[in-house]
User: Fold these one by one.
Assistant:
Number 1:
Amino acid sequence: MTLPSENALMAKAARRAAGSQPGPRERLLAMAQGRRDLVNLGRGDPDLPTPPHILEAAKRALDDGATHYTHWQGRADLREAIAEKCRRDYGLAVHPDQVVLTAGAQEAVYTAFQTLLDPGDEVLLADPHYTSYSRAIRLAGGVPVAVPCTEARAFVVDPADVEARVSPRTKLLVVVTPENPTGAVIPPEAIAALADIALRHDLLVIADDIYERFVYEGPPHMSVASAPGLSDRTIMINGFSKTYAMTGWRIGYMVVPRPLVAAVEVIKHTLTICAPAVSQAAALAALTGPQDCVEDMRRTYAHRRRVLLDGFEPLGLGGRWSRGALYVYARVPSGGLGAYEFCVTLLEQAGVLAFPGTAFGSSDGYIRTTLLQPEETLKEAVSRMAALLQATAQGRTRSHRSPSRDSRMDGV
Ligand SMILES: Cc1ncc(COP(=O)(O)O)c(C=O)c1O
């Protein structure tokens, strides 16, 4: 029997999964692989450790036998703690039966669209956005309808632009605040206007508040779920990765309107049966334990943000519009390079990894840097950028042309 060739095997992949070339993010990560002097401002993975009381709780849980499946929605005491958090933070009367623990907020994103979308259903979302959103929408047969966000509005989505894109096929509105990659924080009046659009056009809403604790300037965080009348039509998505520096634990959750819980079960149980038991124990300790660790992290990130902003300002990169999340969305310096080309040059000639805005949508001209390195490392990144820009101004660098299609939104 002859073995099928590589091409024949690739041709057998389902259309929904096949044909995706590595996006700009993957290409840059591959280029950065193994580079020893790298300053990594790429992935949104906190460098800070998970707080010790959470680690201890997880170790105890393992010793006590947290090695089995739990209820598909997650353990009851954790769901109660999440319902209580929703009451405390958002004033929402959430019942523990509405809470579904997931393997990271990522599983909640996928599950939400698989649960809600039929082929051709349209979903309104900001451009740029966390790219897993558009990918999950397409995998569910839906159509992402991107609403451009610009520096002129501090990358806050304009409700009028959202409403202009509502069509008879629009089913869902996604509201992420603070936003990834821009760090935009949507102010209360814009949240109210978005809620009003959802109510008037009978849209379902996804409220992703995963960066809720990380606001550094301007209006405080407000979840669209807490707007009057919205909780009955909103799936709330949140997690522990960012707030408690727990990316590797893969634990997040969704809060689902009661009538949709049975439909969520069909998708969620098929994907993972339940969220990891040991991570649920850690999440319970995170929610019910001391919260000063979160404020400590917020202060650390706020300080790092200042370091980047102060360093970027004289270089003409800006970034003050990034008021929240774990990122500074900086301008590509003038000089004619697109965002991807600039990131390649930055990586190859200065050893700094950042992602182009085009990895998150269609807006060229920006790069996403993170607050997820110690202060000294961030200062090193700024000084390498300054040296690169100076060398470019003096015509001492090699310029890079984009190899291909850097504005595509898939595969990142
Ligand atoms: C807006 C947003 N939602 C969801 C996620 C997924 O987070 P996790 O699966 O680690 O909880 C991320 C990750 O960066 C994100 O930026």
Note: Residues 139 and 350 are 37 Å apart (CA to CA).
Number 2:
Amino acid sequence: MDLSLLLVLLAALGIGWWLGQRERSQKRHKEMGLQADYYRGLNYLLNQQTDEALELFIHALDVNPQTVDTHLALGSLFRRRGEVDKAIQIHQNLLAGKGLGQEQLMLAELELAHDFIKAGLLDRAEELLLDVAQQPNQQKAKATELLVDVYQREQDWHKALEVGAAANVSASVELAQRLSHFCCELAEESLGKGEEKPCLLYLKQAKRHNADNPRVSFLRAKLSMQQHHYTDAKRHMLVMAQQDVQLMPEIIQPLKQCFAQLDDIAGWRAWLSQAMSLHPSTSLVLAQAKELSQDNDSDAAAYVTEQLRQRPSVKGFNYLIDLHMQWASANAKDSLQVLKGLTVALQRSKPHYRCRQCGFAGNSMHWQCPSCHQWGSTKPIYGLEGE
Ligand SMILES: [Zn+2]
């Protein structure tokens, strides 16, 4: 039995005791019936018959200040089990009850909003959260955070920023990181439309929320490249690599372009060697090999072979086959072609990026994981089938 179910049952047993005490009161007969319902409900819950349990609990447990915690615990349990419709029923029943204090009402509204978010009913969640966030109560901060969640899901970055910025951002590093990404979303939108000034303003705002967000450096570099400011672009990309070394494969191609625009091939080659010693990856090996192959193909082949011994990778192996095909006889070329078909198919069948939070894998780099919605958790995959 999971811990949450155990806790709910303990809370429920407490209520059971309380019902037992009430038995001595004048309404003895009625409550005998309620108590029987209550224990039958407990039995249903233990036997995973949640529909029957829910009906009997709602019938047996009057809504009053003493039973609020049990209603909330049950609602939260159903939501976590994925039975959102039952959680909604419990919380709506709680809100329809009389005699609850202001804090208890706010708490019930917050829980119901949580249910609505999980059910995808975002406008209904928003309405409740605005009500909680606009009144002085202990749930205000939590309501604000959930409201940011709602606007994030709706991709309404302006509203998400407005609500999030009004909260005490310094108290939550996680919220500050999210706000920084919201600004980046707006910056990307502006960049896509060629609006450079607003793009820069959003990026400055993003940096104020989180000075270490590598996405800000990446977008600053993209903007600088669009403006043909290659020295600035290079600087921003190097900052990005320092902020998150795992993302280094992402900057290799644009960085190469910057060095080329600045006619600094020596600088590019020096950076490649330095990067390889700092954080080796297959993309770096291949970039290095391409440089070597400009002078001599056999040097490039020897280099890749040596690197593959140390860090085997399908991508590196493909490159090596390509090099060998140039020198092979007609017969050997056919065999190498078949081999390459297999390794290319293998490479294509494997994802290139994975979310460190939930494990979601795909072939595109997402700043927000499409599965768990975490920001900045997706990284290139390293190892035999990746970098
Ligand atoms: Zn994820």
Note: The first strand starts at residue 353 and ends at 355.
